[in-house]
Design brief:
Shape: rod-shaped
Largest sheet: none
Number of strands: 0
Strand content: under 5%
Order of helices and strands: HHHHHH
């Protein structure tokens, strides 16, 4: 059985028509578009997770810095009123807490998610710091006429007071209910 050159040409022409019709198919291009969109979205999600992780590491680095730990310890131990000699250290604490507060929105996939995570982990120390440093912030804003100075710290501190208070109430209720069950 032999195949003629004409039959080979017809078969080749038919194959080209089939390939051409597949390439012109809207379904093929829609499927390829969907696949590459999925690949692109996956890349964006991976990048977002990586950025969130990097922000978490930076926030941890700021919060666990030896100088900041020592500054927080000093702050939490001292009582009112502030002396003129203590005010520079207190201002440094404000600056450090503000730096930390500016990182908070990047801890989650959304700014509110980052704030929620930060307050879950650090509400108590942030709330305590805000309570103690609020007079310093107010005085510094008046002196410098910069009314938004350390604003990120203020916003986070005020929210931390609410969260820490809620957590404290929940702990008291848990302790009371455990005592009544005994």
């Amino acid at each position: 059985m032999s195949i003629s050159v004409g039959e080979i040409a017809k078969a080749g022409e038919f194959a080209m028509i089939e390939i051409w019709s597949v390439l012109n198919s809207q379904t093929l291009w829609s499927a390829l578009s969907a696949i590459f969109t999925l690949i692109g979205a996956s890349g964006i999600c991976f990048a977002a997770r990586q950025l969130k992780f990097n922000a978490w590491l930076r926030a941890q680095e700021v919060f666990t810095d030896e100088g900041f730990i020592e500054l927080r310890s000093w702050l939490f131990e001292r009582q009112y009123p502030w002396t003129e000699a203590e005010k520079p250290r207190a201002k440094e604490a404000c600056r450090r807490f503000d730096e930390f507060a500016h990182l908070v929105p990047f801890l989650g996939l959304t700014p509110s998610g980052g704030k929620k995570l930060a307050l879950k982990c650090w509400a108590d120390p942030i709330a305590t710091a805000w309570r103690k440093l609020e007079p310093i912030v107010t005085e510094e804003r008046t002196l410098t006429r910069w009314h938004d100075k350390w604003k990120a710290f203020e916003v986070l501190g005020r929210e931390a007071i609410v969260v820490a208070g809620s957590t404290l109430r929940q702990r008291r209720v848990s302790i009371r209910s455990a005592e009544t069950q005994k």
